[in-house]
């Protein structure tokens, strides 16, 4: 069979062919040579509607493309599986190896996972013209949130055996902008309120309790909180803190239902609290 000289085809033809490739296939093709990288970069539609998603899962750092979860493009470890056939590659200025697994391809480009993963995501950014907008991570790996200071669509902090550390949250979320934060991990304690940045909606729905100082911290950073039921003492302390003017966030238009607890502050702002058997919704208007 005569091989198809892909890089030598006319530009119109190559663009149509490239748009039939999956993101994983485009990434693998780009690793073949500098010319192949340029070929992929300049022969794809920049207007394609998909999100670049970063994950930490099973001791791997994963890059996906799609919507909120997406399909895996490639994963990264900080050590190689020498039982696999290793192929040499270059990611940016760093040499590494790539090998196949049952779930896709894995790369190793250094032992320092933060530096290596940032290098890999920078490569994806330059290749696909996409910054990551969805982050799935867990306690101990919140540094993924601050890799880029661009606005995020969603941050999901999954629950593990390790609790959320107050110092780690403070460092990761400083200046953060996100549409949604899903918080499943349990905190080890909040000695004082911490700034979560600017977040439109926070969901805490897979935990049994939301602590007072944590609730106050979240309310300083977001417009709407959806949470599991909290102790009445916690809710009262939260309302007291809000009445003192410590909640600096702005609200949004919200439909007030019969039976909701409504409190008006002297500056005219209204706090709406809906507490049911299943969840608490706190909104500032």
Give a quick summary of the entry:
The chain has 285 residues and is an alpha/beta fold. It is 24% helix and 30% strand.
N-to-C SSE string, H for helix and E for strand = HHHEEEEEEHEEHEEHEHEEE
Please indicate the percent range of residues in DSSP E strands (runs of 2 or more).
25-35%
Mean pLDDT rating: 78
Morphology call: elongated
| Class from secondary-structure proportions | alpha/beta
The main β sheet shows up as:
14 strands, mixed
Over all CA atoms, what is the radius of gyration?
23 Å
Total of helices: 7
> Portion of residues in helices?
10-25%
Organism: Caenorhabditis tropicalis
Protein name: F-box domain-containing protein
Domain F-box: 3-53
InterPro entries: F-box_dom
Structure description:
With 285 residues, the chain is α/β, with parallel strands linked by helices. It has a domain at 131-284. It is 24% helix and 30% strand. It has 7 helices and 14 strands. It has helices at 11-18, 23-30, 34-42, 113-128, 166-173, 212-219, 232-243, and strands spanning 51-57, 60-66, 71-76, 87-91, 94-101, 104-108, 132-137, 152-157, 177-183, 198-204, 222-227, 261-264, 270-275, 280-284. A 14-stranded mixed sheet has the order 4-5-6-3-2-1-7-8-9-10-11-14-13-12. Helix 2 packs antiparallel against helix 3 (34-42) and helix 6 (212-219) runs parallel beside helix 7 (232-243). It is elongated. The model is unreliable at 248-256 (pLDDT under 50). It holds the Pfam family F-box. InterPro entries: F-box_dom (IPR001810). Residues 3-53 form the F-box domain. It comes from Caenorhabditis tropicalis.
